[in-house]
Amino acid sequence: MNTNMAVCIAVIAKENYPLYIRSVPTQNELKFHYTVHTSLDVVEEKISAVGKALGDQRELYLGLLYPTEDYKMFRKLHNSFTDVMCNPFHNPGDTIQSKAFDGIVSGMMVQTA
Amino acid sequence: MAGSQWELPPELCCRPMAFVALTGLDVVYNAVHRAIWDAFCANRRADRVPISFKVLPGDHEYPKCRTKRTSYEWYIPKGILKTGWMNKHLNLVPALVVLFYELDWDDPQWKEKQSECATKVEIVRTSLQGRNTKVAVVLIQKKTPLPPGEDLVASERAQALCHACDLSGKSLFVLPHTDHLVGYIIRLENAFYEHAQTYYYTEIRRVKSHKEFLNKTTHQLLFVRHQFKIAFFSELKQDTQNALKYYRTAYSLVHELRSHETNMLEIKTMAGFINYKICRLCFQHNTPLDAIAQFRKHIDLCKKKIGSAELAFEHSAWMSKQFQSFGELFDEAIKLGLTAIQTQNPGFYYQQAACYSQDRKQLAQQLCQVSNDHIAYQTHYPSPDPLDTQSAGLDFYGQRPWRQGQQSIDPPDAEKEKTGILALQIKERDVPHSELIIALLSNAVAQFKKYKCPRMKSHLMVQMGEEYYHAKDYTKALKLLDYVMCDYRTERWWGLLTAILTTALRCAYLMASIKDYVIYCMELLGRASTLKEEQKSRIERNLIKVLTNEVPDAEPECDPSSVTAARSLWNDRMALAGSNELTIEVQDYIPFIQCKAKFQSPSFHVDQPVQLQVFLRADCPHPVSFSKLAVSLSNQEYNQWCVAEWSGQEAMSLLPGKTTCYNFSFVAKTEDVGKKIEMTGIEVMLGGDSGRCVFVSWRGAGGDAASAHEALQASRCSRRWGRNIEARQELDWDSLTMQHSTMIISRVPKISVQLSHQPPALTNEMYCIKLTVQSQEEAMAKDVKLTAGLKPGQDANLGQTTHVTLDGSKFCDDSAPSLLPDVPLGELKPGEKLEKCVFVKCVSTGPRVFLFHVAYGIDTTVEGRQIMCKCHKDETVTIETLVPFEVSVKFVSTKFEPLDRVSVDIPFLLMTDIVSSSPWPLLLTSSSLQLLTVTSNTPQLQSQLQEVVLQTGECASECFCLRCPPQTSINNTVATGQYLISWRRNSSSPDSPLIQTIVSLPHVVLEMVPLYIHADLPSFGRVRESLPVRYHIENRTALVQEVEMAVEPSDAFMFSGLKQPQGRQLDDASIAAA
């Protein structure tokens, strides 16, 4: 089994509200929500730093928040997210309700029996 | 303090400094001694050597030194580190004892004093038996010493004294008691510091020397102890680099110890101490990353070493303390200049400490319960107290009081162990866990605030609130939860908001705080709540109970004893009569009733009824009924028309998920024309007179904390699916836009205003604009008034060059205004027509905007109400003003040759050309000259342009023969006068005034001619007939002139008469030649 498995995956709108959030059902869901929410502090700081440096605007991956994350995972998730956004029936800003996206996320999550 | 068991000892946390004891000083009664002592200890700045001084009596008993062990062969250590050891070397065993003694070199009783001093030294030495502590003597002298080598007596006696006291020369000092006391003292203490360093060096050597006697099987504990001691002595020696090295060794040794359940606490305690020292030194050496790495390693190694499962809360307490003290070290280092970052700041350690304290609380609750399966006496505190030690405390750090010094792996006395554990469990019950957790959380909050982590801060505040809730301090809990709720609401994290609201609702229930209870219920029933339907159902039932003045059911998961207390509180509240009204502002929440209101139109004519709609929608699972809906408007007089009240027949209720619309309309007052009417608030009254009234109130036209975003999303959606939205049957709530204000505008006028005129206007003419007003009203238009003229707000210069008048028969002057206000035109019957001419005189060219404003009053009825409306109709027109014609003037000679100068007394011609640039035919009625300097050459100056009509582009010319009279003094240029043209439009009526345009004639240069020749020639000649030609030669000077003439023959003529006459020209006479 792949060692890089997630316990919680979230997609956050640029206004900082969750578009999609899912965690492994065995653990305290609320705790994960809080963790994701508090990590936005770091994201916000990183984004403002990118703005200042006028760096490569095409680089969407902000880097590691904590040293456990994986770039490949981001790319996979981002591709699927792009597919969702390209769906003409999806209204950007609405929460994500997509079976395909769900499937990708499930594949990346720790499997619980 | 219950937490004190886990506090690090102060002697561990302080910075170790060399300990020097001063004896022989009487600081109470002797002023000199007092001054010396003060110089040592008062105001010690950072640049002074690190020594801790203490004044001790000369016969002070120092701690006894144990006899030195010669062999460790049979020695089994009882523990790692004695509890008194650090304190002993910091405060009890000096590195140096200094004996102060008053003695001058020339003291008359030198011999006696010398031996007394020697005795005193001996006493100190005896007391320090077996220690390596140095002894030094300081002689306090009244006289200033001579330079070294000069005072022979001094050096001799010094030698003698050293001998008597068995001192080396380096240990005898002189302290002259003179002006420069502090200077001497600093020199003294530097010398003391050197002695102290030597002492600690020897101590390190001494401890190191034990190592060869140790073996790894029985003396494991001693390896740790010795390393720790060496490190600690190194710190005392201020050798922090080596101290760090030794502590690191000690740390790895402590983890090599054989650990089992009974010594786990001792190992962890020592590991914690050594870790603290290492981290502290790393921060001191400005290597914070090393400190963090060490701490991480420490935690990794220790977090699984729980020890006795029955005392698992102890492990959590210890872990919490580890994080807390690291946080404090980190924080201290920051205060000394270290910079922390968002992802690495002390807040995380405080947070983790709080987390472990929460674990501790949970474990304590599980393990220290007064459990039923225990027999009653066991839950009493055991007697004798197993935690009581005969001495003041433990001998070794981290041991159990009931089996101190026991290091065998054999199972301990089971009974003793049991009572000991029970005693600890009972003690743990009294620990104010929540207090500890809250203190740690609030430390963390302060840090995260500093390092820009607002969300982390909010999260910790939620935890604090929850902890207050557990501690039953509901007021504080609500205060905190309420404070952070809006952050989660604005960021739209509904799951988290719901969780916080649920806790808040429990607090409000347990406090029986009706208002809070209602607010939280409303939001938990609303669309932002992620609660399940059945939970919402239960909450709605409770809310209805409160509205009908009944006690609501308890919230789930509340402490049963608290619920009982809360129930009686609620009963008291409900029994209280009066104050049953409650107003709740819901704009900043997401309540279960949504409200949006709008005026049907952004503006209403005063003769139309103002219409507004209020939309209500309930998000709760069951229908909700209300008794009143009221809209407040900025003009409160209209409020009475915007109320819907339960009449007793038709129930006002909202169905879940359905939108209900209420329509209101009223007639605006005529005073409000031109004003805005705003909705200032909307109120829905829940409950009724029988129970409790809750006014749910929205500011403005409704909406709440989430509706702005929903509207934005809806607009994005409708932009794409624009066609669909109209086809949709049901009203889309989210795309419903609010219109909170409307303008009251005047009634639409039913009159026509027409303007007829012939643009463009010509400068200076009285331009006529004919205004026709016709009424299409069905009633009499009263008080008709006209305001006509230049529209305000244009270039300021236009105001001065534009004049408006109603009188077209004569020219208006400059005093006529540019705008004629409120010209009364009387009344207009239905269908009647009214005409009025307005004359405009524009002095300058260019475009102008003219305004014609016709106002009148009319009586009308709206919805059966008679109102008097003011109406007005505006007409504007832009008129260009042009120059009517261009005039050019030139002087030519009688032969029509252009003249650049004019000769005196010689006739010349003035030619004028008038070129029409007007698109309309112009009638030039006359022209005239007003001459200056020059005079007409003809007896009567008659205009050649009388009644001439000029079409566009046509030119009218005139020619005048002029002459400059001879008397004129000759001075270069002179003005010649003006050319006046009278004209009007050809189309204008004959009685309209003529416009006079004045053109200044150019100036001319005058000159004098000495001789003037002119010929009289017939206008024509006939072939073969004589043609008489006569030349006149005039002398214009006062002198006689010689004249010679020659006539050049022409081939076409034959000549008669003088060909070459000669003559003397007399002055001022003329000769005629034929």
From TrEMBL, chain A:
Keyword Transport carried by entry: yes
A single cellular component GO annotation: perinuclear region of cytoplasm
Keywords for this protein: ER-Golgi transport, Transport
Localisation per UniProt entry: Cytoplasm, Perinuclear region
Coiled-coil regions, chain positions: none
Main location, first listed in the record: cytoplasm
Keyword Transport: yes
Family: Belongs to the TRAPP small subunits family. Sedlin subfamily.
Protein name: Trafficking protein particle complex subunit 2-like protein
UniProtKB/TrEMBL annotation, chain B:
Domain Trafficking protein particle complex subunit residues, every copy: 263-526
Pfam (any one): Foie-gras_1
Source lineage: Eukaryota, Metazoa, Chordata, Craniata, Vertebrata
Name of the protein this chain belongs to: Trafficking protein particle complex subunit 11 domain-containing protein
